[in-house]
Amino acid sequence: MATRTDPFREMDRLLTSVLNADRTAALSQAMPVDLYRSGDHYVLHVDLPGADPGTIDVNVEDRTLTIRAQRSPRTDEDVQWLAKERPSGTYARQLTLGRGLALDAISATYTDGVLTLTIPVAQEAKPRRIEVQHGTTAPTPEITSASA
Question: Would you indicate the residue range of the signal peptide (predicted)?
C-alpha cells in the first residue's frame, strides 16, 4: 500500500516545533526587572511569578549581583495537557553593580511574585556639603620649635 505524504504539512510541523522550542527557551530565561533610585537607595523589582520562595537565591560577589530562582513543573499524574506555555526550571540573571553602593546592606523581600531588592548608596558616595570659611586671610598653622 502506498502512503502519501504532504511535504507542506511536514514542514509546518517541523517549523512549529522549532519555534515553540525557541519560545520556551526565551521564556525560561526571562526575568524582567525595573530599577530606579529613590533618595539614598536604589530599588530593583524582579518579576518571578510562580517561583518557589525557598529556591530564591541572591548573591553578591565583587560587584556582580546574581539572582536565581526555580519554578517547579506540575507533576500531576493522569493529566492530559491541552496547553503548556508557562516554563519551569531555573531562572538566573546577573547584573554588574556600580561603585558607591553599600553591598553589605542590601535587603530583599518576595511578595506576590515580585522580588524587591533595596540597595543603599554608600556613605562615602552620598553628596555632602562643604562649608566655606569666610575671612580676609587664610589661616596659617602655628609653628612651634622645640628647644634643646
Answer: none
